[in-house]
Amino acid sequence: MSSLNQIRSTFLDYFAADGHEKVQSAPLVPQNDPTLLFVNAGMVPFKNVFTGQETRATKRATSSQKCVRAGGKHNDLDNVGYTARHHTFFEMLGNFSFGDYFKEHAIELAWNLVTKEFGIPADRLMATVYIDDDEAFDLWKKIAGLPESKIARIAGSDNFWSMGDTGPCGPCTEIFYDHGDHIWGGPPGTPEEDGDRWVEIWNLVFMQFDQQADGSRSLLPRPSIDTGAGLERVAAVLQGVHSNYETDLFRTLIAASEHETNTSAEGDRTPSHRVIADHLRSSSFLIADGVTPSNEGRGYVLRRIMRRAMRHAHLLGAADPLMHRLVPTLVQEMGEAYPELRRAQAFIEDTLKQEEIRFRTTLGRGMGLLEDASRDLGEGGVLSGQTAFTLYDTYGFPLDLTQDEARRRGFTVDTEGFDAAMNEQRSRSREHWTGSGQTASAGEWLALRDRLGPTVFTGYDSVEGSGEV
Ligand code: ATP
Ligand code: MG
Ligand code: MG
Ligand code: MG
């Protein structure tokens, strides 16, 4: 059985043997790219190479890129704990051609790796192409020998990839794996495609355009290739398990959280352990790359992820802060591939611990309030915006945390009411401040913010809307 660490090496070695330069993962915080919250795909560090603003010595590259999808255009925060295939943090394996090879060699390389090196049976696989991409359709027949029934033409955005509202983009072709008819779901292009039976493992993007802020697209200097395969999804296939959370790395992380909470990951406790394992990775990697919890921008996304995990620790009955105690296991599993994790270990542990101590002062009472407020709400009920606002303002519950807890209990949250309560609070505090005749110094302001917590936090608009900073 191949471990995640072995699969990563096999992938990179395979492309290195075909003239691709091995490139280290870039940090999660995009360098010089204010349009993007976090690196969300393997192509992001190469964005300027595709557009021609930057040149590289080599025309081919391969990498295993750290990605976080917890805000912005690609946001999987709400999928974690609910699907078998989504993480907030994952590794995207990729190969890139900067104006060198194009569709044919890209498909050849991918098919060969998947069926020969990895040995995945061809009859479990199918491909999608962009609706009018006859060239890709014919290549799948020619190279892979796929029958036409196993090549789906897809019209929507699923087969036209873009990293955000601007930047390089193009039509794509994707490889799907069939986990078997014991799992609900249908092949891509059918009404049941959102199920977890057919899982997308690899996306090959034919990079051809550069999208501008006004939505118009210009041609890239040269057609290029950008591919992305989720390491954790490939590992699930190769290890013969359905869920990413059953692969070797996640089993080890979940075993640690079972041990530390003295509970087993069974029945309705399973999602909690999975969320904890997932959020442990995203929080730790974000902290290692210099993000710290705060009330705005990237730091608030981190805080939201951390607090979600901490809520699940609470659900499991953890009596003491949990997350920092899981860091050694993560470092032991991933520290070799990502030395920054090992370097930052003490800082990661301390950051998680301080945040959990702080949140635990209000978490229990907040959960109590939620419990009381939901007592009379049945399936399909709506939690009042005022309650969600009190949870946010007094107990430090980010809105999405309350929504997630509501979803778990089968109801929703009145977000308009939440916004209204927030605006009312803002105008009240404006009235309060006008005419006081004083301006607070930065130090006083920070002290006040620390004391009041989220009450005076200013970053709401910048994070809750599009999620971009
Ligand atoms: P899905 O449709 O399953 O959400 P996607 O189409 O959003 O995936 P892409 O943007 O095409 O994904 O990214 C390329 C590859 O990265 C995917 O084929 C998948 O293997 C992997 N991937 C994407 N999102 C995640 C995630 N949240 N967790 C783990 N792997 C992911
Ligand atoms: Mg997705
Ligand atoms: Mg998809
Ligand atoms: Mg895709």
UniProtKB/TrEMBL annotation:
Record keyword Glycoprotein present: no
Domain comment (free text): Consists of three domains; the N-terminal catalytic domain, the editing domain and the C-terminal C-Ala domain. The editing domain removes incorrectly charged amino acids, while the C-Ala domain, along with tRNA(Ala), serves as a bridge to cooperatively bring together the editing and aminoacylation centers thus stimulating deacylation of misacylated tRNAs.
Keyword ATP-binding set for record: yes
Designated name of the protein: Alanine--tRNA ligase
Domain of life per record: Bacteria
Physiological role: Catalyzes the attachment of alanine to tRNA(Ala) in a two-step reaction: alanine is first activated by ATP to form Ala-AMP and then transferred to the acceptor end of tRNA(Ala). Also edits incorrectly charged Ser-tRNA(Ala) and Gly-tRNA(Ala) via its editing domain.
Source species: Brevundimonas alba
Keyword terms: Aminoacyl-tRNA synthetase, ATP-binding, Cytoplasm, Ligase, Metal-binding, Nucleotide-binding, Protein biosynthesis, RNA-binding, tRNA-binding, Zinc
GO biological process, one term: negative regulation of DNA-templated transcription
